[in-house]
TrEMBL record:
Lineage top rank: taxon: Bacteria
Name under which the protein is recorded: Uncharacterized protein
Entry-linked CDD domains: Cas6_III-like
Limits of the CRISPR-associated protein Cas6 C-terminal domain: 182-330
Organism lineage string: Bacteria, Bacillati, Chloroflexota, Ktedonobacteria, Thermogemmatisporales
One Pfam family matching this protein: CRISPR_Cas6_N
Stored InterPro entries: CRISPR-assoc_Cas6-like_N, CRISPR-assoc_Cas6_C, CRISPR-assoc_prot_Cas6_N_sf
Secretion signal span: none
Domain CRISPR-associated protein Cas6-like N-terminal: from-to ranges: 17-165
Length: 333
């Protein structure tokens, strides 16, 4: 197994990890084009055998969703994969090609266990490239490589700390904060209900309106930083009430978009949503009620810097519905 920037956990302690696992099928076959549900199950099954302590922790934190999994990504043109997803037409697998799944870990202490499990698996198996690593559906895969480097050309991998994200947002000048582009790379939707009047029930929101995106991300920030004593004080950096007021006042508006309706097939239903890019304009001035500095970092973020912080977080945690099963993969551009 090759590891690109997958360094020993003692060398750097991050809070968030985004990893690419490059896999090679053991034999020719086919797989459904959207396999997020299968990858989710396969990932947990591998963890149960290789790292039961990690598996137990993920189950303990299931409601907080401490990881995300992508669908298996094929080395094919995106348009071909999208068409296959819409029609649920199986795609071919070849042992001559490599395929990728993206895993994100949202709790820093998970990575050392994952790293240890990989090393032990490599030792016990003798050679990861010859030993079955993961079964997705009926297809068995070998592990070729684990990529964690932020410099990978695909730009979907990396690792960071919550402090690092906050400092990155704090450095943004007002002019740099004004325009935000988000790329929704896998099917995205929001399972939404009007809390003011629930008479009409919930529905799937099929557009990335600010009110669907950012309050949920603010809640995720509060949940994730609360997991470790040394990061709990960072919760004060994000002010959900200030963000909601800014959204209601139309401080953030959609300025441009290239969005398309899309659908994928789960085992029990067809899931509608959207994919594409959306450009948001974050209008100034910032609301006058400035957030209190965080005692942990002495940082103070304007509301627009807070929104950028949440966009950086979304790269790791995803947005919307079923992020542990391949949906809601997003990144700021």
């Amino acid at each position: 197994m090759e590891t690109t920037a997958l360094t020993s956990p003692g060398s750097f302690k991050a809070d968030l990890y985004a990893l690419h696992l490059r896999l090679r099928p053991l034999q020719p076959g086919t797989l459904m084009p959207f396999s997020g549900e299968l990858v989710h199950g396969a990932w947990l099954e591998w963890l149960r055998g290789a790292a039961p302590d990690v598996s137990a922790r993920l189950h303990e934190g299931n409601k907080r969703r401490l990881f995300t999994c992508s669908s298996l990504q094929f080395p094919l043109p995106p348009a071909q994969v999208r068409e296959a997803e819409r029609n649920n037409r199986h795609l071919p697998l070849s042992p001559e090609k490599t395929y990728t799944i993206r895993i994100t870990l949202l709790l820093g202490e998970l990575f050392p266990h994952f790293y240890k499990a990989l090393i032990q698996f490599n030792h016990l198996s003798g050679n990861l490239r010859r030993s079955p690593f993961m079964q997705i559906g009926r297809q068995v895969f070998l592990l070729e490589e684990v990529i964690a480097s932020p410099d990978d050309p695909a730009r979907w991998t990396g690792f960071t700390t919550f402090h690092g994200l906050a400092e990155q947002a704090a450095l943004l000048q007002p002019a740099r904060c004004e325009r935000m582009t988000l790329e929704f790379d896998s099917l995205t939707t929001f399972n939404w209900i009007n809390t003011r009047n629930k008479v009409y029930g919930n529905y799937y929101a099929l557009l990335p309106l600010p009110r669907y995106l950012f309050p949920g991300l603010a809640k995720r920030w509060q949940e994730l930083v609360a997991q470790e004593p040394e990061t709990r004080e960072l919760a004060a950096l994000v002010q959900p009430e200030l963000i909601e007021e800014y959204i209601l006042d139309d401080g953030i508006v959609i300025d441009d978009y290239d969005l398309r309706p899309h659908q994928v097939h789960f085992s029990t239903h067809v899931q509608p949503g959207f994919i594409g890019r959306c450009v948001y304009r974050l209008r100034g001035p910032d609301p006058p009620s400035a957030p209190a500095p965080s005692p942990a970092t002495r940082l103070s973020l304007t509301v627009r810097q807070q929104l950028w912080l949440l966009a950086y977080l979304a790269f790791y945690c995803g947005v919307g519905y079923k992020t542990p099963m391949g949906m809601g993969r997003v990144r700021p551009l």
